[in-house]
Amino acid sequence: MSMNLKVEYSERFNDIVNAKINQMADIALQRVIIEAETICQQEAPVKTGTLRRSLGTLHPSICNVSLRAGVDYWRHVQYGTAAHTITGNPLLAWTGEDGERHVARQVSHPGSKANPFVTRTAKQIKSRQLIQQNLIDVLAAEGILSR
């Protein structure tokens, strides 16, 4: 003896379920991006502290989060720079480490070694399985998953 049973759900039911799933995923992602911000702040090099202080998170819409740096030079820190010439218009002026004031029309910069702090952050998130763990925590809190 066999029995076939077909269960159909209304579009409204599917919409409610999908919205709830998106909401839970969004909560998990918000937790992950906050942890990522903390890790990135720890990984970021500190010369003046401006880069570290500029790191923050954005949450523009559901299931959409990002880590951002509020200073443009983060790319130069992350990826390094090739040797290049810096030209002033009309002059460059700076105070050296010796406290002396220096002036020049152009300076040859030897380049900067990469310090991939964002890459290290991403690797930690992946190796610690933060996305998976946070999603499991949210599902367990909702009673959908037991531990």
Notes on the protein architecture:
This protein is an alpha+beta fold and 147 residues long. It has five helices and four strands. It has helices spanning 11-43, 50-54, 74-79, 117-127, 130-141, and strands spanning 55-61, 64-69, 84-95, 101-109. The strands form two sheets. A two-stranded antiparallel sheet has the order 1-2. A two-stranded antiparallel sheet has the order 3-4. A hairpin with a 2-residue loop joins strand 1 (55-61) and strand 2. It is elongated. The protein starts with 10 loop residues before the first helix and ends in a 6-residue tail after the last helix. The model has no long low-confidence stretch (mean pLDDT 92).
**Structural Rg:** 25 Å
Roughly what fraction of the amino acids lie in strands?
15-25%
Number of DSSP helical runs: 5
Structural class by sheet pairing and helices: alpha+beta
Overall 3D form? elongated
Unreliable stretches, pLDDT < 50, 5 or more residues? none
Q: How is the main sheet built? A: 2 strands, antiparallel
